[in-house]
Amino acid sequence: MSEFLLIRRAGQMLTLRGPNEPRRGPALEELGIITGGAILIRDGVIAAAGPASEVEALEDARGAREIDAAGRMVMPGFVDSHTHLVHGAPRLLDYEMRLRGADYHEIAQAGGGIQSTVRSVRAAAPEDLEAQAHRALRDFARHGTTTLEAKSGYGLDETAEFKMLVVLAALDGWPLDIVPTYLGAHVVPPEFADKPDAYVDWMCTEMLPRIRQRRRAIFADVYCDRGAFTLQQSRRYLEAARTAGLGLKVHAEQFTHTGAAQLAAELGATSADHLEQADENDAAALAAAPTIATLLPGSVFHLGLDRYAPARMLIDRGAAVALATDFNPGTSPTCSMPMILSLACAHMRMSPAEAISAATINGAHAVGRADHVGSIEIGKQADILIVNAADYREPPYYFGVNLIAMTIKRGAILYEQASVADDRAQERAADG
Ligand code: NIG
Ligand code: FE
């Protein structure tokens, strides 16, 4: 017997419905708002969504279990398309050193940076990595994320990369959907310290075919930047990844301009991420490509930098922009997509509507899941948020405040905000 759930009395219901393609230009502004909406869910899948009068009149709506949105905003769950979910410990020493003025190089010399996370992930038991990631997943759920991409890249050798990918596979669905990415090309590991080309060779000829064989990743990602991989090395790796049947993602134009965004566009990568240093030519190339421009303002904010990605230029040129947290211990330790919306609006001049599209439907395109998630449409997974807001502009406006009242995943309540004890309210109730 099918199980029916009815979400009633939505105030603003942001459906994000529309053609099944990444949103660009003015389409990013279209949230498909229905005022006074309802959603009927059958076995975790959206069976109907529209004005309450229509949905509640359906035969299957009678006798369905009900969730009362009580006039609050209802929207699709966030799709966070760029995270380094599994990483063990936070890097609090790096953080303090940076606040005292140390730069990236000095931090690495003092034993910090990505290499320090590599050392600790290599030494960690899988159970401990799983426990860290699972704590983070609960925070993601509290902040409204229902699907996320997650990268390896802190193991780098075969054993530790597969350890990370196996942890991701074990966590998939508990409780969020995880799209796994192999990020072998994050930095050059110590055992290849002075022979980066040999490491790229090894990944292309040994690792990528094994990733394919063991079906441990959907995407491959490379960090193309100073101190990581060159444009030539990135091209070689991405071409090998494509041959291995993986989708392509690129950390592009983060600290230095390398040409990686145009390489991503040329290769038809699924996304080019970061783009803080992107210029007009990069914007034109991304606008002409299927490649999603994924912006990560959390890393700029946390590093205390002031050069955010040129979102306005990218959008105005026609690039399909997504927003993600880049959750990682070095540059962006946040699980909060609402905070990312605030940063995108304040610092990149995205409109609240553009930011919401970028964090939902375009995020879904950036992980290849737009057929299943990212909007409230018939046939999609019932990944839905009830938000303590009357208007879609409130989540970015109330920065640093978590307005998520309820996170629903495949029609099941994952998270429900607790109430605040209020003695006077109790007294009043007792008096009345
Ligand atoms: O996306 N830029 C490269 N990778 C991460 C940082 C990872 C780390 O510092 O641990 C990023 O910002
Ligand atoms: Fe990243």
List the helices and strands and how they pair.
Elements: E1 4-8, E2 12-14, E3 33-35, E4 37-42, E5 45-51, H1 52-56, E6 65-68, E7 73-76, E8 78-80, H2 92-99, H3 104-109, H4 113-123, H5 126-142, E9 145-151, H6 158-171, E10 177-185, H7 196-214, E11 219-223, H8 231-243, E12 247-252, H9 260-266, E13 271-274, H10 280-287, E14 292-295, H11 297-302, H12 311-317, E15 321-323, H13 337-348, H14 352-359, H15 361-366, E16 384-387, H16 394-397, E17 404-409, E18 412-416, H17 423-431
The structure holds N-(iminomethyl)-L-glutamic acid (NIG) and fe (iii) ion (FE).
The total count of helices amounts to: 17
What's the main sheet like? 8 strands, parallel
| Structural class estimated from helices and strands | alpha/beta
How helical, in percent, are the residues? 25-40%
Shape: globular
- Radius of gyration, in Å, reads 22 Å
**Hey, roughly how much beta strand do the residues contain?**
15-25%
| Number of separate strands | 18
Biggest sheet strand line-up: 8-9-10-11-12-13-14-15
Ligand roster: N-(iminomethyl)-L-glutamic acid, fe (iii) ion
The overall pLDDT average reads 97
Uncertain stretches? none
Report how far apart the termini are: 44 Å
Can you describe what's shown?
With 432 residues, this protein is of the alpha/beta class. It has 17 helices and 18 strands. It has an eight-stranded parallel sheet with strand order 8-9-10-11-12-13-14-15. The chain has a four-stranded mixed sheet with strand order 5-4-1-6. A four-stranded antiparallel sheet has the order 7-16-17-18, with no helix packed on it. α5 crosses α6, α10 packs across α12 and α13 crosses α14. The chain is globular, with a radius of gyration of 22 Å. The mean pLDDT is 97. Bound molecules: N-(iminomethyl)-L-glutamic acid and fe (iii) ion. The site of fe (iii) ion has 5 residues, from loops. Fe (iii) ion (FE) binds next to loops.
